[in-house]
C-alpha cells in the first residue's frame, strides 16, 4: 500500500513538472491557486489532526505570503522565484509566531474564534491602508469624496423609490430583523405586515454610515425618527404599530 502511494505521488509530481510544456497557460494558471490551497489545507490538516484545534485564520497567512510576493515583484522589482518564495514564507512565519503564542492559550471553540479575530483584523488592515497593500480604493473612496457620496446616495435612493414608482401596491412581509436597507424598503412599501418578533432600525449609523431616511419621519414622527437615526437603536413591531407604521400584528407563519 505504501509503495502504491509513493508511486502515485511520483506520478503527480511528474505531471506537475511537465504540465507547463503541454498545457495552455490558462490551465497552468488554474493549477497555481489549487496548489496554494492544497498547502493551506495541509497545514489545516496537521493542526486539526494532531491537536484537535480548529483554526479559522489560515487565510491570514495565505494573504501575507501573497502580499509579500506582490510587494517584492511589483514595488521592489525582485524577479527571483526562490527569493520570493523564501521571503513570503518568512513573512507568514513571522506573523504566525505571535498569533500562535496568543491563540494556543485557549482550546476548542475559543481557539477558533481567536484565530478568526486575527484574520478579520488583518482583513480590515488590507482595506484601510491602500498605499501599503495596494487594495482597491474604489470600494470605499466614495466615503471621502462629497460628489461620490452624493452619487452613491442617489443610486441607493433611486432603488428604494422604485417601490413608489410601481403601478401596483407593494406589500412587505417582515419576520425577524429588518435593519438598514431592509427597514427603509419596508417603510416605502404601501402596506407593511410584520410578525410579533419583527425589529426595525438603522444600526449602521453606529458605524458612521446611514442611507437616505426620507420616509421614516413621516411614518413614526420626527422625534422618534431622530432617536433611531441618532442612536442607531431598534424598535419592535408593537411600538411601530402604535405609531401607525403598519396594521395590527400578524402571526406571519
Describe this structure in words.
- This protein is mainly alpha-helical.
- The protein has 2 domains: 2-138, no CATH class; 146-242, 2-enoyl-CoA Hydratase, Chain A, domain 1, CATH 3.90.226.10.
- The chain has 11 helices and 5 strands; from the N terminus they run H-H-H-H-H-H-H-E-E-H-E-E-H-H-E-H.
- The protein has helices spanning 2-22, 25-51, 58-75, 81-103, 108-128, 130-133, 146-165, 181-188, 216-220, 222-231, 237-242; strands at residues 171-174, 177-179, 191-194, 199-201, 234-236.
- It has a 3-stranded mixed β-sheet with strand order 2-4-5. Strands 1-3 form a two-stranded parallel ribbon.
- Helix 7 runs parallel beside helix 8 (181-188).
- The longest helix has 27 residues, at 25-51.
- The termini are far apart.
Blueprint (SSEs and pairs):
Layout: H1 2-22, H2 25-51, H3 58-75, H4 81-103, H5 108-128, H6 130-133, H7 146-165, E1 171-174, E2 177-179, H8 181-188, E3 191-194, E4 199-201, H9 216-220, H10 222-231, E5 234-236, H11 237-242
Parallel strand pairs: 1-3, 2-4
Antiparallel strand pairs: 4-5
Helix pairs in contact: 3-4, 7-8
Helix content: 55-70%
Query: Which overall shape is indicated by the principal axes computed on the Cα atoms?
Result: elongated
The chain-level structural class is mainly alpha
Which spans of ≥5 residues are poorly predicted at pLDDT below 50? 247-253
Overall pLDDT metric: 75
Gyration radius over CA: 26 Å
Output the helix-strand order: HHHHHHHEEHEEHHEH
The N- to C-terminal Cα distance equals 57 Å
Strand content: 5-15%
Biggest pleated sheet: 3 strands, mixed
Task: Order the strands across the largest sheet as they lie in space.
Answer: 2-4-5
Number of distinct beta strands: 5
Put simply, the count of helices is 11
Number of domains: 2
